[in-house]
């Protein structure tokens, strides 16, 4: 059941239930040509979306007008991914029209929840990085900051995951198959983007010499605009996603040559650029098409910004006054040489002036610590695809290295270490280094991460430019991840501390005294119980998974990656099972638990896919083992996405954040769980560190090695076998896998996992196993005291206000962007 909005509604519009219903029917008839009596669900959804969208447009246009008129500084967020999640509910929340829409639909014999249920979310991202971008544009709009999000309108988003015999299979995500009512295509504002070709020297109007890039092919970048409404404000910002279209000129040329087939083929090649999101997370594929995607969207974005958002006579030396380009990881970093090219080659600026403008315009956020996730592009590929950009990168590097050599005379090793162009194993451009050299500020995404970036990954650079490095801890939008997803909790908070907290999340602190209030705790438990029921019902219909809601809900949802250690969670489940089998534990004494996993593996990541198969195999055995008497269940719904997250997170009691210390940059799921009253079991990694500090040791199950300990162990030579030999319970769990207990007696099925754990175990699962099991035993004990558990859960909510993405954005504004709010007045 949805709750009607009570807070932060924009001033009431003259809309009524009947005028809303009229507009809905008009949309159906005059936009789609469909009569209400014959409308399909898709027709109805489109009409509803069209109706709601209509109520945002005036504010959107007013926002654009105001921002242009005030000549304010604009945050241009460059991101290859935006994992937006369902749009309708968010638009209803922002416009404050939910209850009206519900009433109008009811008057027509229709049901809002029913229509919301058919939306296919735009999955234009892989995981944390893309979802963060979506939270950030929400906060930027809510804080009235002039901002535009630039990205790619992938025709196919993140793949749809299914399980076939417990193994992951991927299906294309056809999110656009029924059209997208939230977008405004603008072929009239297309931008041409070139590739390939050569460079030449030409004489300009003043008789000087300039370089000119002559591309061999070009594609047209067509913008699709999406509205990004703020909450509790009239401001509506823009998300502009680019779609590739073959240029007419190019087509025509080949077509006229008489080769029709070649013309069509050329079109396919051009349009492939925005065809599909690369599903790789943390392991760059080094694919030519991926580099094309990156250049395609940033080239279009920069031209768009300069030619459409700035006045015609704008002096580009003043660019940094009007824009800050934020690079969301290295994917958009090719924007740096592109801006240099425009300034120097096209606008005739002096190189040094252009370099100052460029450095003042860009900032870079790094989202990883894994060395394999740091993008490099081979010189061969860059030279072929973007010859002028490669020349520019070389010149930047030359100048930069001259500076390094001047600062550290004779230290050639250092110069080689810091070079933007690496020589081994192949000549390639290190995009993170280019970003660092060319940006005003470089930030990590949690305190620990920024520290490790500064002191390890980019240590040479922070030595040279200490003031360049800063931290902005990630955050999540409370609109989507509390207000929308957890209406029960939102109402309870409203009743306790009043409204207004959604846009001022530190106000959740006022809940602290309520942790001591028995009736509030009871109400809090009721909400959690209802959320569990809602989730159990959803899984029954969505996946045919039958669960009891009367259990500890233990949840691990995130991309499947070895460093995140889903394997450790599986070992805990197996250990519990093994203890019962061996009679060390009575099933009757088990705290009933439902362990829910949600995880996609990159299609080419073999070990991750093996782990998925193992989880499903263990689930099959454990879920039906008579010895366990139904007290331990695994649920692994396929295709975890934002839609599912919104239902799952509010139902969780226990949040699994168990990566190896020093590997998870931040995590953002961890924040969503804490804000929804789950207790964390976690390591001192990423933002867990800050969650732990804020919620307090009593309200967090901390375990595991610290980052320096990890470093020491690996320096001394990590031997996973020694942990296996020394720990009988660990041995029991691993032996059970190896014995074929989860593979119908076949000992080879999970051999890859077993031998990797025993021989390599790159992420020290075995080293942290014992501490994890002990922490889980503490969880069981703690959960038995429901009053104490609720108190801790409420304190988690009360003390997690820091993790609003509004706070993150304010930190970006203070430390990096220095842009100001421009509220739209009506
Ligand atoms: C091209 C290969 C590739 C693809 C994606 C390399 C790196 C990435 C991303 C940087 C991985 C990513 O999504 N990082 C996550 O970013 C989140 C938002 O800051 C953090 O919360 C996660 O800890 C981090 O893993």
TrEMBL record:
<dbReference type="InterPro" id="IPR011833">
    <property type="entry name" value="Glycg_phsphrylas"/>
</dbReference>
<dbReference type="GO" id="GO:0005980">
    <property type="term" value="P:glycogen catabolic process"/>
</dbReference>
<dbReference type="InterPro" id="IPR035090">
    <property type="entry name" value="Pyridoxal_P_attach_site"/>
</dbReference>
<keyword id="KW-0119">Carbohydrate metabolism</keyword>
<keyword id="KW-0808">Transferase</keyword>
<keyword id="KW-0328">Glycosyltransferase</keyword>
<dbReference type="GO" id="GO:0005737">
    <property type="term" value="C:cytoplasm"/>
</dbReference>
<dbReference type="Pfam" id="PF00343">
    <property type="entry name" value="Phosphorylase"/>
</dbReference>
<comment type="similarity">
    <text>Belongs to the glycogen phosphorylase family.</text>
</comment>
<comment type="function">
    <text>Phosphorylase is an important allosteric enzyme in carbohydrate metabolism. Enzymes from different sources differ in their regulatory mechanisms and in their natural substrates. However, all known phosphorylases share catalytic and structural properties.</text>
</comment>
<dbReference type="InterPro" id="IPR000811">
    <property type="entry name" value="Glyco_trans_35"/>
</dbReference>
<feature type="modified residue" description="N6-(pyridoxal phosphate)lysine">
    <location>
        <position position="672"/>
    </location>
</feature>
<protein>
    <recommendedName>
        <fullName>Alpha-1,4 glucan phosphorylase</fullName>
        <ecNumber>2.4.1.1</ecNumber>
    </recommendedName>
</protein>
<dbReference type="GO" id="GO:0030170">
    <property type="term" value="F:pyridoxal phosphate binding"/>
</dbReference>
<comment type="function">
    <text>Allosteric enzyme that catalyzes the rate-limiting step in glycogen catabolism, the phosphorolytic cleavage of glycogen to produce glucose-1-phosphate, and plays a central role in maintaining cellular and organismal glucose homeostasis.</text>
</comment>
<keyword id="KW-0321">Glycogen metabolism</keyword>
<keyword id="KW-0663">Pyridoxal phosphate</keyword>
<dbReference type="GO" id="GO:0008184">
    <property type="term" value="F:glycogen phosphorylase activity"/>
</dbReference>
